[in-house]
Amino acid sequence: MAQMETKPITSVPATNAPTANAPTTCVTTGSTMPTPQASVPKAQTGMPEPPAGDFMHSLCEADCSILHRLCTEPVAPMDHPDLHLAKAETTLFGVTAKLSEAKGFRFPDPVEIAAGRISPATRAPTLTGEQERMLFLRLNLTRMKIAAILARFADRALTRKAARTLIAWGHWELNVRAQIVELNMPLVLAMAKRTRLTHVDFNEMISEGNMALLRSVDKFDCGRGFKFSTYSCRAILKSFSRVAMKASRYRGTFPVEYDPSIEKSDHLDTKRARVESDCITELKDILTANVAALSEVEQTVIRQRFALDSTSSEIPMPKTLEQVGKVIGVTKERVRQIQNKALKKIREALEAGYLAA
Q1: pLDDT tens-digit profile of 119-137?
Q2: In this structure, is residue 77 part of a structural domain?
Q3: According to DSSP H, which parts of 195-227 are helical?
Q4: How far is CA 15 from CA 11, 222, 229, in A?
Q5: Pick from 207, 241, 286, 348: most CB atoms within 10 A?
Q6: Average pLDDT, whole number, for the chain?
Q7: Is the residue at 36 inside a domain?
Q8: 132 in the same domain as 61
Q9: Same domain, 154 and 238
Q10: Which domain range does residue 291 map to?
Q11: Which conformational region is residue 155 in: left (phi greater than 0), alpha (psi within -120 to 50 degrees), or beta?
Q12: Burial classification of residue 240, based on how many CB atoms lie within 10 Å of its CB (0-12 exposed, 13-18 middle, 19 or more buried)
């Protein structure tokens, strides 16, 4: 039986290799196979731009601030199945999220969720579990709507209607967040009073606790079934620990309290005090050696007027013209004349000394 002749399979030279997105020919069968398309990376979406024209000038300062914050610092929502139901805003807020020109292109006021009981721990109004869940669903719904608008207008300018809708959702978000924070701020004060930390300022603890509370509001997931106070208490306690650690490091660097007396004084004040001290010393030397040839009355007037004879540790108090006049038995006008004459002699003696030097 004759053997079948086989042809060797030759490899395709590298120079004839198919390029990207070109069909490839099978060497053994001769059929053409399509080449998979190369995956093109998607461009990263950016933040939307404000509407063109003079729209921003027509907004109030509060609306401009809200629009700028939402476009530059968006907060990611915590997802929940109830947020994807039909007419979720009507179910959660009790009203339809429709812009009202009468209210300055904002949404109607939602149905209020009021605290119905007093907490025994903080002695402040608090919410039930269901009320708290409704508030956080409201907060995350507003953030979900805001995120949807930002994604729709990524890398391009907002329309006027989209910008007004974004601002309206921003107002609802701020109101809900403010209500949650206001109802839970007594929790920070109560925990600060129960936490005893030495060498830690109480006001600093309150400040750090409030910041921890704000961060907890943004990160709390109501879908897990826990109370917000359970989550925020741990965050507040951790913030107190950070304050204590920071105070401990500060005491290690600066082991003494602040003492104003050891603070470096002003250079000009120090120089002025040194010049005054030198002048008084030189004046005393002139009077002691009587370089200016002063009479006894003139020396008495100068010493009394400028308190040069004071030996007490207290601050020397110069005498008035009238007081010196009673000492030497003349009028205050005569004392002024004697003083001026004596000062003129002292000035001439100083100038002569400088010229001699």
Answers
A1: 666 666 778 889 899 999 9
A2: yes
A3: 202-219
A4: 11, 62, 70
A5: 286
A6: 79
A7: no
A8: yes
A9: yes
A10: 267-356
A11: left
A12: buried
Counting residues of the chain whose pLDDT is more than 70, the rounded percentage is 78
Q: Residues for the chain: how many in total?
A: 357
The HSE-up count of residue 292 (CA atoms within 13 Å, CB side) is: 24
Compute the distance between CA of residue 319 and CA of residue 323 in angstroms, rounded to an integer. Answer: 6
Same domain as 311, residue 275: yes
Residue 234 shares a structural domain with residue 294: no
**Residue-level pLDDT at 155:** 85
What does the alpha-carbon distance between residue 219 and residue 75 come to, in Å, rounded to a whole number?
10
Taking only the tens place, the pLDDT of each residue in 181-217 is: 999 998 898 888 888 777 788 888 999 999 999 999 9
In angstroms, the CA 150 to CA 166 distance is 9
What 3-state class would DSSP assign to 117? strand
- Look at the pTM and tell me if it is higher than 0.70: no
Query: Which residue is listed with tokens 């006027």?
Result: 160
Could you give the count of Cα atoms lying within 13 Å of 116 in the half-sphere of its Cβ?
A: 7
Interatomic CA distance for residues 107 and 180, integer angstroms: 20
Distance CA 320, CA 330 (A): 13
